[in-house]
Amino acid sequence: MYDENTISNRQDKGQLNPVSNSTVTIAAVGDVMMHDGQIWSGYDSETGLYNYSMFFQDVKDEISSADIAMANLETTLGGKELKFTGYPKFNSPDELADALKDAGFDIIMTSNNHCLDRGEKGVVRTIDVLEQRRLMAVGTSRTAGERDRIVIKEINGVKIAFLAYTYGTNGNPVPKDKPYLVNLIEEDTILKDLTKARQSADAVVVYLHFGQEYQRVASEQQKKLAKMLLEKGADVVIGSHPHVTQPGEWVRVIGPGGEMVERYAAYSLGNFISAQRFPYTDEGVILKITIEKDLQQNRINVKDVDQIPTWVDKFKEDGKMRYVIRLGKKPPLKKISGLKCPPFTLRCNVPFHTLLLPAGRIRPFHPRPPGCNSIWGHSKCPRISDTDTWRYRYNLLSVELP
Ligand SMILES: [Zn+2]
User: Fold this and answer.
1) Angle separating helix axes 187-200 and 220-231, nearest 10 degrees
2) Measured between alpha carbons, how far is 126 from 94 in angstroms, rounded to an integer?
3) Separation of 73 CA from ligand 1 center, angstroms?
4) CB neighbours of 216 closer than 8 A, spacing ≥ 6?
5) How much is the pTM?
6) CA 383 / ligand 1 centre spacing (Å)
7) Are 168 and 139 within 8 A, CB to CB?
8) Near ion ligand 1, which residues have CB within 5 Å?
């Protein structure tokens, strides 16, 4: 025989079972860029085909092990007829989307300053190509109806909504009669979307393409906007565009139930892949974040934020440039004493640094000569000829290490 107490005890026990919490892991990366060198790195002149799976070969496990993986596609997939080009107006082969799918990505942020590089046609076709590969485009839309739908992914019973916006489109105007093509950062619009997203999802991730290029710390404006969105109901704000990483932070805000909660703002995840050569632009992070749904209290906890460093290894193989994202911190520059400039810069005769790369390959780095303040680093220093610059960038020396 049992009384009411016994029953309620049993229920309590059941409710305390940790199984009652559901978690979802999200992996987010920064800018997936496609410069000219990268376009050609995947081209096979014998078959006429492109393949970019090599970009992601080392990070594939890390990406695909997350429940949801997202990236910012900082180029368009406008098709061959619109010509494939890198900077300043990007258009890349569709095989980049194949490689992203193969790497384990699910959600592709398309609202960024390059999304109109091939006009409306480019915006529309990019979404088509992603969709054909079962990749979800967020931040640009083909129709007004599409603009108003909220992208939600449900994993382990947790519904997560994704919103994305960009600060601008590099002077390529969004057609006046088709404002739905690109989500711009406009507070009113974001707040409206956020309210709508909260109605049908448990958690909301807001992606912002914002910040100052090459600044390694988030600006006050970035912080203010991110904090405001976290206060208004976003659970995670993820940014990119500066092409370098910016430290993220926990932000304490009042949650939907009136209690204090910890939310996370990742201001810039840096470049995931690019051919950029400015300092730190070849480094990025994979942000891994766990979102927990507490089924007892029906609330969302953001926890376990992990930043896995990555860097872009550029090297020559079979006469071709290769770009591979490596896991871990970029190997430090190591000065090797006794080695002078290689023959093609004999006139300089300054000891050079090398970057030790996997498989014993080395890449020379020249110390900046006194008085050279070029932000491009030594490679654009007037004391080095164009030919030398080219060789610096693309030659891998085989020098015996002492
Ligand atoms: Zn950008």
Assistant:
1) 30
2) 8
3) 9
4) 242, 244, 245, 246, 280
5) 0.83
6) 31
7) no
8) 112-113, 241
Task: Specify the domain boundaries for CATH 3.60.21.10 within the chain.
Answer: 18-314
Cβ–Cβ < 8 Å for 305, 289: yes
- The fold for domain 18-314 equals Purple Acid Phosphatase; chain A, domain 2 (3.60.21)
- What's the gap in Å between 136 CA and the centre of ligand 1? 19
Residue 259 alpha carbon to ligand 1 centre in Å: 36
* Residue 178 to residue 219: CA distance in whole angstroms: 31
- C-alpha 211 to ligand 1 mean position (Å): 9
Question: Is the Cα dihedral 105, 142, 35, 109 positive or negative?
Answer: negative
Write out the two tokens for 24: 């979802």
Residue 270 β-bridge partners: 284
Please list the pLDDT of the chain residue by residue as tens digits (402 residues): 333 333 333 334 334 445 579 999 999 999 999 999 999 999 999 999 999 999 999 999 999 999 999 999 999 999 999 999 999 999 999 999 999 999 999 999 999 999 999 999 999 999 999 999 999 999 999 999 999 999 999 999 999 999 999 999 999 999 999 999 999 999 999 999 999 999 999 999 999 999 999 999 999 999 999 999 999 999 999 999 999 999 999 999 998 788 899 999 999 999 999 998 777 899 999 999 999 999 888 899 999 899 999 999 888 787 788 999 999 998 765 544 444 444 334 344 454 555 555 544 555 555 555 554 443 344 434 344 433 443 444 333 333 333
Place of tokens 């409710």: 15
287, amino acid identity: L
